[in-house]
Structures
1.
Amino acid sequence: MRYLPLTDAEREEMRKVIGVSDVRELFSCMPSAQCRPPLDTLPRALSEPELAAAFKEFGRRNSFSGFLSFLGAGAYSHFIPEVVSYLSAKGEFLTPYTPYQPEVSQGSLQAIFEYQTMMAMLTGLDVANASLYDGATAAAEAVLLAVRRSGRKRVLLAGSLHPEYAAVIRTYAQNLPIELATVAVDEKSGRVDAVDLRAKLNDSIAAVLFQSPNFLGVVEDGGGIAAAAHECKAICVQVVAEAMSLAYLVPPGEAGVDMAVGEAQSFGLPLGFGGPYLGFMTVREEFMRQMPGRLVGQTRDLDGKRGYVLTLSTREQHIKREKATSNICSNEAWCAMRAGMYLAVMGKAGLARAARTCHLNAAYFARMAARMKTIRVVYPGNFYNEVLIEVKTGSAAQRAAALKKKGILAGVPLSWFADSQKERLLLAFSEMHDRAAIDRLLSALGEAS
C-alpha cells in the first residue's frame, strides 16, 4: 500500500478551514504533562553504529535476565522452540491483516484451522474460535454469550476467579442488564463452596463461571460444579488462566463443562510487559452461532480440492451489523497461528511431558516447603503448578522484597489484590525450573525469615 502524505500547501489549507493557527491547538485538551515534546526539541538522530551502541547500553541496564523467577498469577514462562519464532516471523504470516479473501489467504486460514482443532482437542469441546484478545476479555465474552443464549440475566462468579478477570467482567457488565454475584470459597480446600453455590443457584441464573486451576492454584471440582449448574439449566463456564494445565488435567468437556475460555499465552507466546496475549474460547456445538470472533472452516472447491474459509464471522462490520455477538474489531490471528505452531512442534508427547514437569516441580517445592517452620503451604494436596504459601513472620511482600535482593522473584504477594491477604505468596513453577533452582528458592526462603 502506497503512503500518500499531505503537502505543506494542503496542510495550510486544512488549518485555515478549521480555524486554527497552529496544529498544536488540536491537542490543547490534553494535559501538557502527557504530551510529547515538539519535534524540534528532540535530540539529533543517531547513526547506525551509534544506535547499536545505545541499545547495547540499554541492554546492560536490564537486569531481569539475571533473576530466577517464580512469578505467575496469569502470566507464565515456558520454553519456546526456536522454530516457532522463525516460522511465525515469516512475512506471509506476520504481515497479513484479515483473511477476508480465502483465495489469497489459504496459508493463514489453514494455520488458524489447525489451531482451532488442537484447542478443541485439548479442552474436550466441539468448537474453538479463532481467538480473542486475552483471558480476561474471553471470560467477559463468555458471560455475554451465556446471557444471550439463556435469556437470563444473573451470573455467578467463583470467588476464586482471578481478580483482574473479575474486574474486566464487571466493567463489561456495568452498563448492561446483567447481575453478577460471587460464590464463596471454602477456606479449608481453596475450592468453590459447594453449599454456597447450591444456595445461590436458581432458575434466574444464566451461568456459573469458575476458574480451574483457580487463582489460589487449586484444581476445582469441575464435574461437581457443572452438575449443580445443569440442575437449574444454567450454563457452566470454566476459565483457564494457565493453558498448559489442559495437557495434564481432565479436559473441561469431559467434566461436563459447556464452555472453556481463558488465556493461551503459555502456548508459544513470550512474556512481554502484558502482551500481546491470546484469549481462547471453546464451546459445545449448540453455542457455536453465539460465539464472538471468527471461525475458520474446511471445505472443498468446485474441483474437489480441500480449502479453508471464514465459516462464521459475527462481527458488526460483517452482515451481522447490529445483531453482532461482539464488538471485537480486530483479532489475535497471528498469536493464534503462533500458538498452533507451538502445539504442532511440541506434539502430543512433548506437550504432555512439559505439562507434567510443571506439576512435578510444584509438587517437589510443596513437599520440601512443608518441612520448613517459617512458612506454611496453604493447600498442599490439590494444585497444578502454582503453590500458595503463608509466611509466619512479617508480610509476604517483605519476604518477596528480601528475596529480590538475592536475585529471586519469589512469586506474587496476594496483598496486591486484597489487603486481607498480606501473609500469602503465590509461586508458579514450570518446565523452565530444575531441582537446583527450586532448592535455591527454598534456601533463600529460609534465610529471609
Note: Residues 333-369 form the longest helix (37 residues).
2.
Amino acid sequence: MNWNVYLSGEIHTDWRQQLKDGCEAENLSIEFTSAVTDHEASDAAGDLLSEEDKNFWRDHKSAKVNAIRTRTLIEKCDIAVVRFGDKYKQWNAAFDAGCCAALGKPYITLHAEDLIHPLKEVDAQAHAWATSPEQVVELLTYVLTRE
C-alpha cells in the first residue's frame, strides 16, 4: 500500500528527516509532502506578486500563496502528522490540523507532554498523539503493514 503523508508544523528541528529515515528503515511505501520549510522563502512568497510596504499585506499575500501548496497537499494526503515544537508557536500547524479535521483527514499530533493543555482541542480531533518521531514511525508501520 502506498500512502501520501503530509508533514505539518515546526521547521526548526530534523523531525521530518527522522520520520523519513525511520519509515525507510521499515520499508514503508510512503510519499512525504510538506509546506515550504525554508522560513525566509515562505515569508517572502507574496513578494513574487509584488513587494509590500506594510508587513500585514506582505504576510497576507504570502499566506495566500503558501495556501495554494498546503491546501492542495492536505486535500491529497492519506494522513497528516502535525508537529508542535516548544520554541515557537505553530499557529499554522494548528490551522492545518483544523483543515484536516474539517476535511475528515486523519492526523497524528506530535508534541511534548507540556503542550497537552494548550493543544487539547487539536488533540481531541487527532487520531493519535505521539511524543517522538519514533512513535509516529511505529504507528505508520502498524497502520500500513498489519492485516
Note: The chain has one domain: 3-39+77-145.
3.
Amino acid sequence: MPIKLKRIYDDVSKDDGVRILVDRLWPRGISKERAKVDEWMRDIAPSNELRKWVHEDFSRWAEFKLKYFDDLREHTEAVESIRKMAKRKTVTLLFAAKNVEQNNAVALLEYLNNAK
C-alpha cells in the first residue's frame, strides 16, 4: 500500500487510510476533531533545533536530510511501525508546513522508501 503525504489543513478523505501526524508541535489553528489524526508520532519529527536550522535557510535542505536521517536511525521502532502499517493499508503522513516540497514529512517519506 502507498504512503502518501498531506497537509493537515487539507480536507480529510476516506482515501487517507491511517493518518499519522509527523510534526513535533501540534499545528496551529486546527482542532483535534477536525484533524482526524489516528496517531501523532512527534518523536519521529526532527528536533526543534534542526527544524529551526533548516527553516532559516532552505538551501541547507540536502544537509538537513542527512542530519535528519541520522536521527531517524535512532527511531527504528517508529520507522518500522509505519512500514508495517503501510504493508496492510494506506498511510498518510500529515504535516503543517506551507512548503510542500521541503519539510520533514517529505524527508521521512524518502527515508522510508530508501533506507532498509
Note: The radius of gyration is 13 Å.
4.
Amino acid sequence: MRRLQHLRPADGATKDRLRRGCGRGTGNGGTAGKGHKGQKARGKIHPWFEGGQLPIHRRMTHKGFSNFRFAIDYQVVNVGMLNRFENSTVITPDILKCAGLISSRNKPVKILGDGALEKELTVCAHAFTQSALETIKSAGGTAEVIG
C-alpha cells in the first residue's frame, strides 16, 4: 500500500541545485561558471549601466507638469453624513470637526452629493458639488460658500 511519506518524484523529474565555487569536481569550480576576470565576473552590473557614459535618465530633459504644488487638498464630507445633526442647524467646519467628520479646521472642506438628506440644514463649506447643492436644496436647506 502506498503512503504519503513514501511518495517521490519520478526519476529525472528533478535536478540537484548547482553548487557554484565548490571545487573542480562540481564542474563549476575555479571561476564558478563566470569565465575569466573582467567586470562581469567580479560584481553586479545593473541592466541600466551604460559603461560609464552619462545614463539616459540623466541625459533626457525633464518634461511634463505636475499640479501637486497648486492643487487644493479638500477634506470631503458626504451629504448623507449630515443626517446626524438636528433640524435647522448651521453646520460649519468647527461643528464638523467636533463631530469627527473632518480631521482639521485649517484645511478646506468640500461637501459631496453621496447619500440622502432628510433634514433642513444650513451648510457652510469651502466648496460643494452640483449634486450636493441639489440634495441640500431639495431637503429645504441652504448652502453657503465660505470665502
Note: The first strand starts at residue 75 and ends at 78.
